[in-house]
Amino acid sequence: MADKHHPKRGSMGYSPRKRAKGHIGRFSSWPDVEGEPRIQGFAGYKVGMTHAFIRDYRKESTTAGQEVSIPVTIIEVPAMKVVAVRLYRMTVYGLESMTEFWTKKLDKELGNRVMIPNKVKSLKKLDKIDLSEVEDIRVIAVTQPKLITGIPKKVPDVMELRISGSDLKERLDFAKGLIGKEIKINDFVGDGQMIDIIAITKGKGFQGAPKRWGIKLLHHKDSKHRRKVGAMGPWNPHFVRREVPLAGQVGYHQRTEFNKRILRVGEDGAEINPDGGFLHYGEIRNPWVMVHGSVPGSAKRLVRFRDPTRFRGEAVDEVEISYISTASKQGT
């Protein structure tokens, strides 16, 4: 039993540790942002990591104002297509899909991901919607992995993106104007801004309790095994509690990282590609973003962005970057 001199090992902060439902992260909430209507999310594919020299923009840092070397993550973000607009209404059980309007111009690859409706509602009916019943407005957007040489697939990933704004009518008109068109990363975020990132971590399969929970190995004179928990719990109740560290799935979990800084949004991949390309990915040929620090998941994995929900600091207009490493990642 844990006490102050012998605390319980292994954090229960992420439990149950089970596999994610899919490779597309799911946002449970969106922040309310006032002002002009705009999209509140985007998506890209993780390329890899490198390092850069920047002027430390963090005022509370011990190296504030000095040039420091930091790890950065590169994410390729080709343009996304808006294929539909979806309206939500509030019920006693929460938000419920009210209606949706699809574009007539759909890529044939989309049919391999979702069921494409046979009949498409006319967008003229969208103007006759009673806004008093509408609680939220979102668009359905799809990625374009066929534009990326490092992603070996053509089937797009489908997701919802919320439309922000203070006036519901303006948000609806803005969403209507996006149907059937492409949106770019510059429509969502710029240099120096904060975002939240959600992705699926690297999968490590079925692992034992020491690796999964960080428990100590038993004594070498233990009668049976070393890499197991010392006790399965009390006699009563007659079942194993969830607090007991056991073997199971490790990795491939959905994780959300708050307050990640976008250091730079680039258009040309030639200025960031290392010699020989990124490991397990290749070369970038589309717009890209540079994120301060690490991002969950392996290379080629889908990464979703969202407006920050917990950001309380000061905004940075631009981060001074003096050097980005393009040295070969292939080893010596």
Would you kindly provide a written description of the structure presented here, covering whatever features stand out?
The protein is mainly β. The chain contains two helices and 15 strands. Strands 1, 4, 5, 6, 7 and 8 form a six-stranded antiparallel sheet that branches. Strands 2-3-13-12-9-14 form a six-stranded antiparallel barrel. It is globular. The termini are far apart. The mean pLDDT is 90.
Secondary structure blueprint with pairings:
Elements: E1 38-39, E2 41-55, E3 67-76, E4 80-91, E5 94-102, E6 136-142, E7 158-164, H1 168-178, E8 182-183, E9 194-200, E10 203-207, H2 209-213, E11 248-251, E12 254-266, E13 288-292, E14 302-306, E15 321-324
Antiparallel strand pairs: 1-7, 2-3, 2-14, 2-15, 3-13, 4-5, 4-6, 4-8, 6-7, 9-12, 9-14, 10-11, 12-13
Provide the β-strand percentage band. Answer: 25-35%
* Helical amount: under 10%
Query: What would you call the shape?
Result: globular
Number of strands: 15
Short description:
This protein has helices at 168-178, 209-213; strands at 38-39, 41-55, 67-76, 80-91, 94-102, 136-142, 158-164, 182-183, 194-200, 203-207, 248-251, 254-266, 288-292, 302-306, 321-324. With 332 residues, the chain is mainly β.
